Amino acid sequence: MRTEISEMAGLTGHTGTGGAAPELNWAGNYRYTAAAIHRPRTLEDVQDVVAGASKIRALGSRHSFNAIADSPGSLISLEDLDPGIRIDPAARTVTVSGGTRYGTLAEKLESNGYALPNLASLPHISIAGAIATATHGSGDANGNLATSVAALEIVAADGTVHHLGRGSSPDFDGAVVGLGALGVVTKVTLDIEPTFAVRQDVFEALPWQTVLENFDAATSSAYSVSLFTDWSGDAVAQAWLKSRVSGAAAAEAAFAGGTFFSGTRATVARHPLPGVSAENCTEQLGVPGPWSERLAHFRMAFTPSSGDELQSEFFVRREHTVAAISELRALSPRISPLLHVSEIRTVAADQLWLSTAYGQHSVGFHFTWKQRQAEVEELLPAMEEALAPFNARPHWGKLFHAEADSVAALYPRFADFKDLAERMDPEHKFRNEFLARKVFGK
Ligand SMILES: Cc1cc2nc3c(=O)[nH]c(=O)nc-3n(C[C@H](O)[C@H](O)[C@H](O)COP(=O)(O)OP(=O)(O)OC[C@H]3O[C@@H](n4cnc5c(N)ncnc54)[C@H](O)[C@@H]3O)c2cc1C
User: What is the pTM of this model?
Assistant: First the structure.
């Protein structure tokens, strides 16, 4: 067995994401309390480590903003496992180690003529970590990243390997967005499609009134649409449109005259934050390029080791979009001073039990906060109260206030998920403080 075990405190300087201190998450706002981290190199090592641990949780690329990944015992990282990327052209799937980052997979797929349907804003996140929290991109017809999962290989609490497939395993829909509570996802099989090209266009200063009157038309104008705002003022600051080039003629027609719902076309590349250089952003100005270099907002080659930001996000049914925006704009005097920027995206409905888009076409209201955590945490209850009439579901990997009782009411299959976790992890090896407070209840 070649498992490496390191004391967390002694890991500073380990080759992590660009040399960040690995006892901290990417944003540096959370310090893991786990005493040790295991870095197995084979599936058998993962099995041994999990079977031998009393408390353990999988750690992805550390991009979550809360304590979800922490463990009162030890952590296990799959970063040292070979990605083992295997494309199956007949099944139109790719199988890859769970610790692999989306950017690594995207490059490999693109060079073989294939594509994933969507990406999140950042390609540096691990695949298993992203699907565990229902991470998403945008697009009316695009499900979140977990909806591309066709099969999972999971090491359960007793060290046994389980294979769950979409359509063939009754527990599959409960296991994909698993919050790390069911086991260690060692392999993920994802749907793929032939590669496609995407152009990215940015429009600026879209009047709120026009956006609200035409929200569905605006978000259906391109394959993926993101609206950036700080909630103050009368206009949405930017709209980022990612259009598949096969649909470029239609996209061009929608953008005719250089305007988009009264917003004007940006003539230089933009960063979502005003005044910040766009050099780390994926190419814009309508230049077509491979999906792998357009669907994320940020380039893979740009690897920030840490971030001067915090994040929260809430999802509501599409029908509630305008009313929810009205509530958030009313809170802008409190939100805007703490905010770098907000992003509004759409996500198609799915059937994954703990997915934030479970059973409903959704709109996500994302907040990139300044690193003023105490003030953000003070504001979150007011925001959640304002969005409560719309049964807003918080992003699992970001900052939110709600606790298990109120979270449970948001998910029709919540009790089924708890039963599944009990079956797969009867000794609660994969539980932590976050799950106790937000999911299982104390
Ligand atoms: C700059 C930035 C941009 C972001 N952009 C987006 C975005 O566009 N859309 C969006 O939805 N979110 C976004 N996020 C949030 C991010 O996608 C999620 O927090 C995601 O879970 C991070 O993945 P990770 O690999 O870092 O997981 P971690 O934070 O390390 O872990 C998250 C969860 O996954 C579990 N997990 C990790 N690996 C495994 C495994 N192998 N088996 C079982 N469970 C596992 C952990 O136990 C934990 O519960 C962003 C975050 C940052 C920092």
Answer: 0.95
